[in-house]
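User: My collaborator sent over this chain with a note saying "see what the structure looks like." That's all I know about it. Can you take a look?
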Amino acid sequence: TFCRHLRPENMRWGYLDNLQIGEKKTVMQSMAEYLLINLDEFNSISAKVQQGFLKNTLQLTTVNVKRPYARRREDLPRMASFIATSNMTDVLSDPSGSRRFFVVNLTEPINTDYRPDYQQLYAQAVEAVRQNEQRWFDARQTELVMEHNRQFEMRDSAEMVFHDCFELT
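Assistant: Without extra context I'll predict from the sequence alone. Here is the result:
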């Protein structure tokens, strides 16, 4: 519900929550057609897919696709941002790729009755772009994101057994 309400009513068409991440062609086309793609139950995406295909896909600025009935492939601008949900806390499998994620651990239900003032929000975003405000993380901020995300990394079985048997003080 929360993810569906992140866009105004007239942009609800741009939400997708049933993407099959294993179907690479569909993923690429969806990135050019949708605004927000929800990777529901992110923990079900294998470590191999996270470290390979997904890691690369998240950083693309354009996608190369062949539209239905088209004769040639073409580069299209990537429109989609990704959001993911999980009931697990150990969801990230690639420490070097964790900078691509900003993990938030919810501690209480989200109030889905609240609706943002979309016009004001978008006006502020447009003004920030016009003022050439930084829209990316610098090296220090990236380091902080990766440090924060360490608590959400998958552990190998030996490490899990160790933490089950011993408590760090």
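A starting point for your reply to your collaborator: The chain has a mean pLDDT of 85.
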